[in-house]
Amino acid sequence: MAFADKTLVCRDCNNNFIFTSGEQEFYASKGLLNDPVRCGNCRSQRKTAQPSMETEEGYVRYGNFVSFGGRNPRQMHPATCAECGMMTEVPFVPRGDRPVYCSACFSKIKGPA
């Protein structure tokens, strides 16, 4: 399939930008169906404006983008790792009757798959 350069309008700054044939070919090879809606400058500004995932409690909060590409947010719950004592988040409510591990300690305990 032959691709031709397209001129698109940025959603944020309303400036025109070129969606090159090479970029279109890359999008098609990855199975992406939609054209980009932001120019390169607005995309990079948007990436750098993302809030830090480290919280004051000392564990990482992943937010809405944890599972399924952000389509279905996963509820995360804070917990303390039973092995190393670090704060972590788990996708279930810790009940206290079983130990909870951070991903690094869980990988060590579980062993190679």
Count of distinct strands: 4
The oligomerization state is single chain
Our measurement of the CA-to-CA distance between the termini, rounded to an integer number of angstroms, reads 41 Å
The level of helicity is 10-25%
Arrangement of strands in the largest sheet: 1-2
Strand content: 5-15%
Overall tally of structural domains: 2
Poorly predicted runs: none
Rounded to an integer in angstroms, the radius of gyration calculated over CA atoms is 21 Å
Please provide the ordered H/E string of secondary-structure elements: EEHHEEH
Secondary-structure-derived class:
alpha+beta
**Biggest beta sheet attributes:** 2 strands, antiparallel
Name the average pLDDT: 81
The number of helical segments is 3
Q: What's the SSE blueprint?
A:
Layout: E1 6-9, E2 16-19, H1 21-29, H2 40-48, E3 77-80, E4 87-90, H3 103-110
Antiparallel strand pairs: 1-2, 3-4
Description:
The chain is of the alpha+beta class. It has two domains: 6-48, no CATH class; 63-110, no CATH class. Helix content is 23%, strand content 14%. The chain is built from three helices and four strands. The protein has helices at residues 21-29, 40-48, 103-110; strands at 6-9, 16-19, 77-80, 87-90. A two-stranded antiparallel ribbon has the order 1-2. A two-stranded antiparallel ribbon has the order 3-4. The longest helix has 9 residues, at 21-29. The mean pLDDT is 81.
Summarize the model shown.
This protein is of the alpha+beta class and about 110 residues long.
Please supply descriptive tags for the structure shown above:
elongated; alpha+beta; 2 domains; 113 residues; 3 helices; two-stranded antiparallel ribbon; 14% strand; 4 strands; 23% helix; two-stranded antiparallel sheet
